[in-house]
Structure formats: C-alpha cells, structure tokens
Amino acid sequence: MNKYAHMTYKHFILPVFLMASIAPVFSQQKNEKMTPKDTEVWEPVPPVVATPKDQAPSDAIVLFDGTNLDAWEPAKRPGEKAEWIVGGGTFTVNKPAGNIQTKQRFEDYQLHLEYYIPKDIDGEEQGRGNSGLFLASTGPNDEGYEFQILDSYENRTYSNGQLGSIYKQFIPLANPARKPGEWQSIDLVWTAPKFGTDGSLISPAKITAFINNVLVHNNVELKGETFYIGHPVYKAHGPSPIKLQSHGDPSKPISFRNIWVRELNK
Ligand code: MG
C-alpha cells in the first residue's frame, strides 16, 4: 500500500499552503538584515554608445547617411548598383528598378528608418504609397517577412495590411500615420527565427515595433513568412538582407532617409 495513502488535506496540502504563505515574511526579515551594497552588481559594464542628436548611435551600421546607396543592391541583381533615386539627403523608390536590399546580411537587430509619403499622393487602399520593409529577405521579389509601409492616413484597407502590419499576419496595435507630406519614423527590434541543421524551426521570429514613437507590435511571434496569397509558413534560412519594396501600385513613389541598424546578440 502507498505509504502516503492515509494522508489528507490537513496532513499535506495545508502545511504546504502555510509554508508558502509565510515564505514572503522570511524573505522580508532577510531583506531587513541586508545593506544597499549587497544588491549592487558591477559587472559587466555596459558599453558606452554615443548618441549625437538626429544621428545614428556610435555603434550602429549606417545603411543610408543621405549621400549614397552604397550599402544597397538590386534584390534581383546582387552586386550591381542600386538604382533608386538619391537627392536632398533622401532616396526615392524607383519602381521600374525593383526591390533593393542591403549588401550585408543580418540576424537580430535594432533598426531605425524614416519615410515620407508625398503630400499629393493619390490612389486608395493598397494602392496609396505602398512600399514595405522586409525584415529578413529570402528572395528577390516579396519573399521574407514584410512590415507594411503604406499611407494609412484616412485610407482604410484590410487591417492586417495597413501601415505597420506584419503583412496578413498581425494587425498593428494603433494607426499612428501622419498626414502625407511629413516625415515619419519606424523603430523596431527584430529577432530572427532560428532553425536547426535539419531545417526545423527552433524559435520563431519576434518583433517589437514603434511608428512615430507609438507601439504597434509588442514582442509578437511571427507565424512564418508573409504571403500575398495563403497562410504563413517558415522555411529555413540563415542571416539575410533587409529589403525595401518597390510596389507596383500606380501612386507616387515614397522616400526614405536616416536608416541604421544595431546588430544584437552577436
Ligand atoms: Mg507593401
């Protein structure tokens, strides 16, 4: 016979409950015997990062400093010159030239980017200032994980396709779109998905993101790559370029400036 079979509520559960309920009292008494120094931790020392006003932090990789697209290449012709249009400290989508991507490949990072929808933008729904930020590109077209960029100022479309959506996966928590004709900002932390050597998913991609300083995703776990048609699916990949979308909508092209990333967990 089980030697604990005779035990009842008062023999077992009650004592455990009482011990758990008085544990905080013991902790409190222990704290009272401690000094402030007992809980000071001095190592490691966080690295110093200089943060000049309106510039990239000192440890960032600058992807566009206002002068050239040297950090970028056509997604369909890696190694060639990215032919979007640079001028006035900004660059503008050149729709016939197709998507562009970073020459460098990334895993986990913090990113800052500013974009501008022309004041006289036309079109509606998905056809109004459509571009996109592919957080990790897995092909030259629209393969990868798209963070939607669109003019969502008084321009309704499906919620999981509006500005700041993880395209057709996650609706943004808010719509912080400014009126066309004003610069806007995107700040985000991207954790790349991790795959085993057999191609199986070990951990999904994660994102926390802000548009114009407003939280739009809070540590969301992606379900896979984003698709125009069909449900999300993961396929194994390693470090990947960041890609900007040249969308085929007929509205005026949008512009970008001040793009930088800080690599994380390296
Ligand atoms: Mg798009």
Please explain how this structure is put together:
- By secondary structure, this protein is mainly beta.
- The protein has a single domain (61-263), classed as Jelly Rolls, CATH 2.60.120.
- The chain contains 1 helix and 15 strands.
- It has one helix at 13-32; strands spanning 61-64, 72-74, 85-87, 90-92, 100-102, 109-116, 131-137, 144-149, 183-191, 194-195, 201-203, 206-211, 214-221, 243-244, 255-263.
- The strands form 3 sheets. Strands 1, 3, 4, 6, 9, 12, 13 and 15 form an 8-stranded antiparallel beta sheet that branches. Strands 2-5-14-7-8 form a 5-stranded antiparallel beta sheet, with no helix packed on it. A two-stranded antiparallel ribbon has the order 10-11.
- The longest helix is centred in the first third of the chain and has 20 residues, at 13-32.
- It is globular and about 70 Å long.
- The relative contact order is 0.20.
- The model has no long low-confidence stretch (mean pLDDT 93).
- Magnesium ion is lined by residues 130-132, 146, 148, 245, 247.
- Strand fraction: 25-35%
Number of helices: 1
Q: What ions, cofactors and ligands are bound?
A: magnesium ion
The name of the CATH topology is Jelly Rolls
Category from helices, strands and their pairing: mainly beta
Helical residues, percent: under 10%
Q: Which residues sit in consecutive blocks of at least 5 with pLDDT less than 50?
A: none
Question: What's the total count of β strands?
Answer: 15
The appropriate CATH architecture is: Sandwich
Distance between the termini: 57 Å
**Helix and strand string, N-terminal first?**
HEEEEEEEEEEEEEEE
